[in-house]
Amino acid sequence: NKWGLDPVFHTHVKLTIGYLLSQCPPLNTEGTFFSLCKLHAFQKVEIVGVVVEKLSYGDKMKLLVDDATGCMRFVVFPGTYSETTAKINLGHLVRIYGRVRIYKEVHEVTVEQIGASSSLFSLFL
């Protein structure tokens, strides 16, 4: 497999949730590598959307984010949780960088970095 040689593989691909869910099939059985336009393999994404649900479980958190094309679950683990829990609330526009995977037959993103986005126009930039 030559996925690691593709420069897109190591970058955060800017996608909408709807496109990710409908047009990016998994390339392996574990559901950790995905195809972009059947040309490039990727595993990292950048998504901007509005937080519509926030659930905390001890030292981790699950967010449901809507970007007007669909909704997706985002999992925030302890390393990222402590720095985000106070500044991310329902209705906030957020920019999320993370790794996409399929867990229990559902797409989700493990968050590497999350921050509040200042403008709705950042959805398109």
Give keywords.
125 residues; mainly beta; 5-stranded mixed barrel; two-stranded antiparallel sheet
In short:
11% of the residues lie in helices and 46% in strands. The strands form 2 sheets. It has a 5-stranded mixed beta barrel with strand order 4-5-6-8-7. It has a two-stranded antiparallel ribbon with strand order 2-3.
Q: Going across the major beta sheet, what is the strand order?
A: 4-5-6-8-7
Number of helices: 2
Q: What is the number of beta strands?
A: 8
**What's the helix-strand series?**
EHEEEEEHEE
Ranges where pLDDT stays below 50 over 5 or more residues in a row are none
Task: Look at the structure and give the mean pLDDT.
Answer: 80
What is the makeup of the main sheet? 5 strands, mixed, barrel
Structural class: mainly beta
Strand content: over 45%
The percentage helix is 10-25%
C-alpha termini separation:
32 Å
Can you tell me the overall shape?
Answer: globular
From the alpha carbons, calculate the radius of gyration and give it in angstroms. Answer: 14 Å
Q: How does this structure look, described?
A:
With 125 residues, the chain is mostly beta strands. Helices cover 11% and strands 46% of the residues. The chain has helices at 17-23, 78-84; strands at residues 12-14, 34-36, 40-42, 44-57, 60-66, 71-76, 93-103, 106-116. Strands 4-5-6-8-7 form a five-stranded mixed beta barrel. Strands 2-3 form a two-stranded antiparallel sheet. The mean pLDDT is 80.
